Amino acid sequence: MFLSASDAKSIADRLLTLSEADACVIELNGGDERSLRFARGGATTNMATSEVNLRVTSYVGRRKGSVAVASLAEEDLDSALRRSEEIARLLPVDPEYIEPLGPRNYPPTLRYDEATGVQGLEALASAASTVIAESAARDVHAFGCGSSGRRFAALATSAGLFAYDRRSDTDISVTARNRADSWSGWGGASEFRSSNLDVAGVARRATEKAAHDAPPLDIEPARYCVIFEPAATAELARWLMWMMGSRPADEGRSFFSKPGGGAKQGEALFDPKLTIRSDPEDRLAPEESFGYEGVPQSKRTWVDKGVVASLYRSRFWARKTDAEAIPFASNFTVEGGATPIEEMIRATKRGLLVTRLWYTNMLDPRSLLLTGLTRDGNFLIENGRVTSPVFNMRFNESLAALFSRIEAVGPTVRTWRAMSGGVVAAPPLMVSNFNFSSRSSGI
Amino acid sequence: MTLASAFRLNRGLLLDLADLALTLAQRGGANYSDIRLGETRRESIQAREDRLRDFSESSERGFGLRVLVDGCWGFYGAPRLEESSIREAVRQALDNARAVKPIQAQSIVLEELRPVESEWLMPMDVDPFDVPADSKADWLLAVTAAALESGADYASASLSFAKEERLFANSHGSRIFQSRTRTHPQLDATVVDKATGRFSSRESLTPARGAGWDYVLSCGLLAEAKRAAEDARRKLDAKPVAPGERDIVIDPTNLWLTIHETVGHSTELDRALGWEANFAGTSFVKPEMLGRLRFGSELMTIVADRSQQGGLSTLGFDDDGVSSQFASFPIVEHGVFQNYQMALGQAHLIGLPRSNGCAYADSPASFPIQRMPNISLQPNPSPTSLNDLIADVEDGLYVVGAGSWSIDQQRDNFQFGGQLFYEIKNGQLGELVRDAAYQGRTVAFWNALDGLGDASTYHLAGTFGCGKGEPVQSAPVSHGAVPARFRKVMVLNPEQGEA
Which of A85, A325, A352, B99 has a CA between 20 and 30 Å from the CA of residue B262? Predict the structure, then answer.
């Protein structure tokens, strides 16, 4: 269920008026979404859903209780309000209590297009049809998912804050596999506006990568020069951003902790070619207008030419450490460079071109050691040319190390949204001595 | 055991809404239709050191209507239980089915479904949703206090509860009421050496269960908190593991996750058919391997079931309305692959007559897809203790507790960490080592199995949240296991870049 700002505000205001707590916070979110999956040239499952969630958090004498309901019925909301107050009265005092935020100014949202938000399943079936036709033309199988919809989020406090944001989304992702089931390729894109979604381009990229009849080469896992396509760069950068919390760093349990205490903010920990920014007004990956606790998002640099510029921080931790409260950024941009991917390939004597990564997981937060595998388009580069598909491989590599060995950076593009829900704009990235540890037969 | 979880929603209302939806759907042209209506309640309580970080309750009521029109599925889900929403859902679901007709290359074909009228209510002593908030908070803060008193610098603990109440109804006349509850107490103890910048953590081994508050009180997390803090300190001072091929004995607290990733997911028929190729992946286990693939050694028998007490997938019927009696089957028997897990409309694609009851929708408003029942490694029928397994290892490791995990999209190449790795020297348990992980290829790994604990060593573990599908759905599932010995497994020290 999609609500306008005024509808969300009137629901929140009513509850805030009824609140008997010392302070109260209302969070509302919801939306409508349609999705369609297809495999081997035909539809499998589809969904159209409508959802809404309201969470009321009541504070009674620095004690907190929180109740959420997936309903806007007044009796459900009133019951949730009373229950949150009841829970708060039963619980111990919260030593990290911080009063709800008062009014703030928020940047405008650039992420909403009404027509995209309400388009029906026919549009997704049409996109799937384009992909299926392309796969038939290249004699490969296509498997994919398209989705579209719109969502809103609102936050109101008894201190007078009201924040509202909305976005529309449309996504397409395609995995193509050759007829022998021995090779695959992938493409994906996400846009706020369906007219910008290049379905044909995604289909072309996935099917071109898959259309190889020769069996993949079985090469020795070792350290290789790797060119990551933007989707792979985005995944690596997401992990880095998740680890950039101020509190774990200050507490000595993070890569960003300084021996002896404090955080490594301001230190040059990465290659000068790495810069990461977030900005609600960014052209490619605009950030939400507000973050955790209602703190406004603003233009922010996280890594500036290899130097750690910002770590995210709750309002409590900001007060305790006398620092700025910085909400986490789920939409951000890895700044691009001037080297096209074709030039990176030409400059590579022997290396790998990686389309995307799979099942990445943190092995050790102390060293930012990450594991994962290549997937759906892993190619050998020899003497400046892509020469052959190669079997996928597992890597064990520190994010700190790989982001310190950047050889070249290409132009930044908006990448597929993936499971995280946030949009990352990222460039192709050329990294030397990337550590592959074992083979995988998984295609 | 009592029926503390008796069905609390208004059954009459649910039945009326289901009848309306199915009647209108059939009238609108559906050849088959089904609907799931109900509520999922959740509670999450989190403590950190001496602070109760969060106490939150949530509930989600709604329904999901699925219609089959001329061989095409259409689906609509909504968070309301009211007549006007049902009428809108019927219209939208029928529209959606017709919208996909142009790309429905192969019609959806369903097996024969017999009408069932039944109910299944999970027995438990104390419903966690009936326990006062302050009792839960006090219990959780006692857990973190125990860890801090035992030397942890930081301690986080949580209690998670979920309760599903659902009515399944279909156009063949089935009407099935079900209710189940799950519980997960957890702890993470961390120690920090600020001088060197090193730190280490130990997560609890206490498993999630299909159970109530009585399980919380008996699960032993309070006692484990002390051990966890001590283990975290010992890990900090442990020597790095020496990488290389080693014999390993894997405790069930770790092995359950390996079973989940390598066996559970590889034997899902929708993956083998390519239906999950774009996200969760496919499988190295192909339909022509049924009854033929030597998946593991003779000792390896892995079964599916929905009847184990405490199982997170234990219930009477799946979300296609198929009885759990069909969900008891061997997946691997004496090392040979025997059965896929299947949902509605899949069995005929590999020449089988019907689903074996493995469908789940993570909310009433989600489309049911194939998900795991409880999947468990069967014990050794011959008396065998953990010490017996260790005694036959000259130079190896004993792995306890699940850690970092990763596996390729066809479920072949895997890498698993753990909470505790102990050396084994000349048949004796030795020192704790750190920075270890084991890596392998699924079939070679299971064929290297040469020792299993007996039934006395059996342990049921599991997770609240296994992700699959697009949009991603999260499913609870349990895995039982016994300690198992594997020969010549690659042990890594990824921290040193050794493979």
Answer: A352
